[in-house]
Amino acid sequence: MAPDGRSARRYAVRHVFARIGVYALAVVAALFCATPFLWSVITAFKLNRDLVDTENNPFVYNLPPTADHVLYLFTDTSFTRFVLNTLWVGALVVAITLALALPAAYSLARLDRPWAGWMGVTIFFVYLVPPSLLFLSLSRLVVELGLQDSTWSLVLVYPTITVPVSVWLLMGFLKAIPRDIEEQAMVDGYSRVGAFLRAVAPLAFPGIVAVVVFAFTLTASEFIYALAFVSPTAQKVISTGVPTELVRGDVFFWQSLQAATVIVAVPIAFVFNLFLDRFIAGFTMGAVKS
After folding, report:
1. Are 15 and 154 part of one and the same domain?
2. Which of 5, 25, 27, 65 could cross-link to 1 by cystine, CB 3.0-4.6 Å?
3. Distance CA 40, CA 47 (A)
């Protein structure tokens, strides 16, 4: 075989082994990252005796599994109500966030004003203010409006967290869309609003998806405001309802806690992966152009 042929063959072999190594490392990394989730699934169906025995393997069923702890979550706690409250609050907050963030981001990204740059930075800085510094003043506002101990208080307060960062993300994405598109639409007879809705908004869909996922996830995981503003069990969301119902003093309903974690994580992971490409596009375009 000619020297060039042997070199090409060695290169091909090295290339194959390199790809095998990359895939092997990816599988190992995926299993490592999935270990906490797999442990939660296994723990949710374990008996108490299997869980507390330190000699038992935590990743296998040393005793026969049981579904009692999962059933307890639905029959003896208000978990279903927590889920519904979370969906209700999250949907309203996402709608309010889009209604406020889209026009604000479009104005800052498209309208040439000398204050647009520092205004966008100022809006983002609002997101960096810790909630622990604001909940006392916001609680005064909630009480004055008569929304205490109601999910409506969370609908009122959560946009203060989601809107600033959403404006920042959408600004970066809208800047990546050529102005010529909407200008052509306006030449065809559309108003600026019509050009935005018909020409710009469809192209900005990945950024909108990123904002929706981010806003809902942030709303569902927020703890301080939900704990400070809502006390009745029937009005609680998942972030506060699950720990207050399943952690009672020094008694932890550990299997039910893990079951709640899995039940909440699976739908979110499914939706996230369904829109993964658009979600990544929205974040990366915003990061590059901001």
Report:
1. no
2. 5
3. 13
Contact 227, 240 (CB under 8 A): yes
Same domain, yes or no: 152 and 209: yes
Total domains, the chain? 2
Q: What is the pTM of this model?
A: 0.80
Asked if residues 106 and 203 have their Cβ atoms less than 8 Å apart, the reply is no
Phi, psi of 41 (to 5 degrees): -60, -45
Boundaries of domain holding 30: 3-66
User: For residue 279, what are its two tokens?
Assistant: 């979600």
Low-confidence ranges of the chain (pLDDT < 70): 1-6, 112-113, 115-118, 120, 275-290
Q: What is the pLDDT of residues 102-130, one digit of tens each?
A: 888 888 877 766 766 667 677 777 777 77
Q: Are residues 162 and 269 in the same domain?
A: yes
DSSP states of 69-86 as a string? Answer: HHHHHHHSS-HHHHHHHH
| CATH of residue 151 | 1.10.3720.10
In angstroms, the CA 255 to CA 58 distance is 12
